[in-house]
Amino acid sequence: MSVEGRVVQEREVIQKIKLVTAEPSSLTEFKLALQDSFRVAAEADFGHPLEEPIPSDDDIEKSFNATGAVTYWIMEDEQRVGGAVLVIDPISGRNNLSLFFIATSQQSRGLGLKAWKAIEQEFPFTKVWETVTPYFEKRNIHFYVNRCGFKIVDFYNRYHPDPHQDSRQIPDEEDDEMFRFEKIMKNVDE
Questions:
Q1: Is 155:111 a contact under the CB 8 Å cutoff?
Q2: pTM metric for this prediction
Q3: pLDDT single digits (tens) 31-58
Q4: Are 185 and 130 in contact (CB under 8 A)?
Q5: Rounded distance, CA 22 to CA 88, Å?
Q6: Other C-beta atoms within 10 Å of 115: how many?
Q7: If we measure between CA atoms, which residue out of 57, 5, 7 comes closest to residue 31?
Q8: Contact assessment for residue 32 and residue 57, using Cβ atoms and an 8 Å cutoff
Q9: Four-point Cα dihedral 36, 64, 131, 32, nearest 10
Q10: What pLDDT does 100 receive?
Q11: Three-class SS string for the chain?
């Protein structure tokens, strides 16, 4: 297949995934779906049930209410299959993928990559995308690095804390360690 044919085919695949702005009335449902997705992955990694939801209600609320935040449901054929909270800075072009999930029942179908490509298309002015993920989330690390083209730029831990975290929340356990990723977009003129 020619390069042009693959590009057209890729656009058709991405078009099946839609980003729909989450209405305020659906944010509770969004939060529960997000926590369920994260819970299943974390319990599989830790080998035991979690005592508290992750991310916490407070962390999710902070993401929803951050300056420049936009919350989307990821839709496939009019069905909610995931969601994303983005923090957009149109002035600097440095945007943040604050929260991103595909429902557990919808995983391993390529929807995450399709959704990510739809996000990139939605914000073509982006110069740099940033995100973080826990150190133990091998599936996420693979997704961001090997599928989406992000690079690991920081490893936050008690010796190198996240400068954006409250100093009282400096990681003291491995469970709190995070990788920070960046993706520098090639299609934006400097």
A1: no
A2: 0.83
A3: 999 999 988 878 877 788 888 888 999 9
A4: no
A5: 16
A6: 25
A7: 57
A8: no
A9: 0
A10: 97
A11: CCHHHHHHHHHHHHHCEEEEECCHHHHHHHHHHHHHHHHHHHHHHHCCCCCCCCCCHHHHHHHHHCCCEEEEEEEECCEEEEEEEEECCCCCCEEEEEEEEECHHHCCCCHHHHHHHHHHHHCCCCCEEEEEEECCCHHHHHHHHHHCCCEEEEEEECCECCCCCCHHHCCCCHHHCEEEEEEECCCCCC
Token digits for 162?
Answer: 């996240």
Q: pLDDT (tens digit, 9 = 90+) per residue, 134-158?
A: 888 888 999 999 999 999 998 877 8
Cβ 18 vs Cβ 75: under 8 Å: yes
**Six-digit token pair at 81?**
């299959």
* The pLDDT value given to residue 15: 54
Tokens of 76: 């496939």
